[in-house]
Structure formats: C-alpha cells, structure tokens
Amino acid sequence: MDCFEAGILMLKELEGKTSDRETDALMRHLLECPDCLMHFRLLKELINDSLYEKTPVRAPEDFEIQVMTKIRNINAITVVRTKVMKYK
Ligand SMILES: [Zn+2]
To answer: What is the CA(9)–ligand 1 centre distance, in A?
Structure first.
C-alpha cells in the first residue's frame, strides 16, 4: 500500500466504513510509515474535537498550528499543480 491509498483508507476508517482486511492493511502501513501515522492521529483529533466540542481541549497547544501548516502545505501543492497545468 502506498501513502495515497493509506490516506483514503484513513478517511474510510474514521467513518467506520473499512472492512477488517482494510483496517489491517492500514494499520500495517501506519506501523511502517511515521508520516501517515502522524496524519492519522491529527485526523482522529480533529474528529474527536468536533464530536466533543464541549469538553476541554486535550490537544497540545501547537495542535492548531500543526493542522494549519498541513492545510497550507496542501493548498501550496494545489496552487503549484494548477500553475503547472496552466503553462503546459
Ligand atoms: Zn505512508
């Protein structure tokens, strides 16, 4: 499994839509891939926060910064891709 596939499975997993085999494959990838593991943890935190909005914040102080950085990175990649496509 590559990281792209793992990303898709993460979202399915968080929605509870993965089969046992998919969960197993995802967990095996997460054990080998620290980047995806961190990404998965962030996604889980995001979902927990939106489910339990009234509970005190348990996330680390820089959690929001981490998420924002990730989102900015994604935006930057999208912008670069769009520009590359335009000039082709
Ligand atoms: Zn990965």
So the answer is: 11
pLDDT tens, 20-44?
Answer: 999 999 999 999 999 999 999 998 8
- End-to-end, the C-alpha distance of the chain in Å comes to 31
Stated pTM of the model: 0.55
Compute, in angstroms, the gap from residue 49 CA to the centroid of ligand 1: 24
6 shares a domain with 43: yes
Output the CA torsion sign for 62, 66, 67, 71: positive
Q: What domain range is 15 assigned to?
A: 1-55
Please count the structural domains in the chain.
Answer: 2
Residues 13, 43, single domain; the answer is yes
